[in-house]
# Entry
Amino acid sequence: MVSYKELGFVNTKQMFAEAMKGRYAVPAYNFNNMEQLQAIINGCGKTKSPVILQVSSGARKYANQTLLRYMAEGAVKMARDSGYDFPIALHLDHGDTYELCVSCIETGFSSVMIDGSHHPYDKNVELTAKVVEYAHGHDVTVEGELGVLAGIEDDVVAAASIYTHPDQVEDFLKRTGVDSLAISIGTSHGAYKFKPEQCTRDASGVLVPPPLRFDILEEIERRIPGFPIVLHGASSVLPEYVDVINNNGGALKAAVGIPAEQLRRAAKSAVCKINIDSDGRLVVTAMIRKVFAEHPAEFDPRKYLGPARDELTRVIMEKNRSVLGSARD
Ligand code: G3H
Ligand code: 13P
Ligand code: ZN
# Structure
């Protein structure tokens, strides 16, 4: 058993209390490899933003849970050696079993999500409460979920969103003891969050998605005032990078995300954590495609992964400053 405290991580309790008070959201960025992790640490270090490093089930399959945890430990050391002073949490994204949450806690994660949202309500309560009991014994914070996001949530595919029922939240908190709650108000995972027929078009023909259900968020806030809310599926699917991809041989058709203004509005509310994975993937893919299109003879990975990492660092800084409001530089 290794305590996350020995590794230099923090849990999310203080982070969320400060985000609630300061009316911003802490960014939760997913990472699968070294370049993404470097971009997150440098981007958040330079903007003095707290950060939650997220490890998904896809990331564990791709890179190995143990390796990712040691990379994250190394990232804390790198941050401190670089003179950056900002809190870093290591978080399990979409944990689906009690055993997985325990194994992450035992190896140094400071926060876990137990996603029982696909189960019937009582099973979700039972599973979440069991994880909370173990996690709190180690001062690890737990995120639960109520409501289902459309799209692919790790290996589970849901055809349509099931919005969170505000009348369940008080009971869920009371019976589980979770520290934060992910809700469903119209976001979804991946680059195709809305079907074109759900969108309108602006004057220049760009697809405009339907607004998030802020009415549901407000009702939830009314019922559990001051409680930290989490938004998954919150990438904006940045159109400039979708264009770079499509202009350099890619074929991302009708990719639509959550507009930055809506995320900004959410960040000023009880939403204390905003999850971003797809935007990072798009930025990396756009830069790699661009390098290959411009330099077809290039074969040194550092020559295309380096520009991808640097661009991702810039995007993270921009998001922290103008979307999440978490930057303190
Ligand atoms: O759950 C949200 C993540 O974006 C899923 O990512 O494909 O690495 O499991 P994954
Ligand atoms: P995006 O696919 O919108 O980046 O969402 C990521 C996420 O919610 C990870 O849990
Ligand atoms: Zn998610």
User: Anything to note?
Assistant: Residues 4-323 form a domain with the TIM Barrel fold (CATH 3.20.20.70). The radius of gyration is 19 Å.
